[in-house]
Specification:
The protein is built from 13 helices and no strands. The chain has a domain of 178 residues: MetI-like (MetI-like fold), CATH 1.10.3720.10. The longest helix is centred in the middle third of the chain and has 37 residues. By secondary structure, it is an all-alpha fold.
Length: 332
């Protein structure tokens, strides 16, 4: 891996970030609706703002948030604010900032989806490899229809089913939320166990669907490597079947799965919107849903920017690690 390769990948990363930030700025402004005016009219309909004062308030807020400036000046101001980690104020929860709200929700999403995605990836990859392996056990083949069916079910529908059966009908686990209402989050064992109990159902709905999806992809990749010469050579050497499966077949079929995993981990920052909404989980997905429902302009922009940066960083790391993972694609 040469220095020029590294610099080229870093340059592509910055190009992705600049393009993403530019689109994130201009796309919302295509809509002719003023987000502040729309929010104030919404509050007026709920009795929170006097209708006669809306236009005056709109002028005040436009000046405060810089929306009365020319578009090019807003764009330069947007970049300046980003470099100072200023994502703007929440229109729905002023004077809270978008960064504060995102920072408060991100750990819940990362904790739930990161663990769920990795568990689903590991189990699904092994399961898919065993499905394609000629000498696999009958148990893996017997479980295949179950997991393939689960992969076709949207995870939010599975979540609704869990809420009805496990939480409401059987009352085994909590209906929703991240912890018991009224509890104060703290690094104590009782609190950690409480958080774990509340995370089981949303995590299970993601894991069960993910196992089937990852399994399908891995089975397809394993099928492509079964007839390769290096597998026949390994068998001719008299290597153990487990060694052939793990070191020759699984390792070579795993590379496309690693790319998919990297993209999945990057999109973790967006949250599983519907799962978090169904279970009332205070993550980024739920925050994004509330921001869209409340026309919270700057929070939506902040979450989208977070997603763009996370995807760009993960793909950059993948580009730099791929030559180390697979010597066949090393540069230079």
């Amino acid at each position: 891996m040469t220095i020029s390769y590294i610099f080229r990948r870093i340059a592509i990363f910055f190009l992705i970030v600049i393009t993403g930030v530019t689109l994130n700025f201009f796309v919302p402004r295509i809509n002719p609706t003023n987000p502040i005016e729309a929010r104030l009219h919404q509050l007026a309909a709920q009795g929170g703002v006097n209708e006669s004062n809306i236009q005056e308030l709109v002028k005040i807020y436009n000046t405060k948030f810089g929306l009365d400036q020319p578009l090019w000046k807003q764009y330069l101001t947007y970049w300046r604010d980003l470099l100072h980690l200023d994502l703007g104020f929440s229109l729905a929860h002023y004077p809270q900032t978008a960064l504060e709200m995102i920072a408060r929700s991100a750990p819940w999403t990362i904790g739930l989806l990161l663990v769920s995605t990795i568990i689903a990836f590991v189990l699904g990859t092994l399961f898919g490899a065993l499905m394609a392996w000629p000498r696999t056990s009958g148990i893996a083949l017997a479980l295949s229809p179950i997991f393939m069916t689960l992969s076709a079910i949207p995870y939010y529908l599975l979540g609704i089913l869990f809420v009805y059966l496990v939480a409401m009908r059987w009352r085994v686990l909590p209906v929703g939320g991240a912890y018991t209402a009224g509890a104060v989050p703290a690094l104590t064992w009782p609190m950690m166990l409480d958080i774990g109990r509340h995370a089981i159902l949303p995590a299970l709905s993601i894991v069960l669907v993910g196992i089937g999806a990852w399994g399908l992809g891995m089975r397809a990749m394993m099928t492509t490597v079964l007839g390769e010469d290096y597998l026949q050579m390994a068998e001719a050497k008299g290597l153990k079947p487990r060694t052939i499966f793990m070191d020759y077949a699984l390792r070579n079929a795993l590379l496309p799965q690693v790319t998919s995993l990297a993209i999945s981990l990057a999109t973790v920052m967006s949250g599983a919107v519907l799962v978090e909404v169904i279970f009332g989980y205070p993550g980024l997905g739920n925050l994004l849903f509330q921001a869209i429902s409340g026309n919270d302009y700057f929070v939506i922009q902040g979450i989208v920017l977070f997603i763009i940066l996370s995807i760009g960083i993960v793909l950059l790391a993948l580009d730099l690690l791929y030559p180390l993972i697979d010597p066949r694609i090393r540069q230079g």
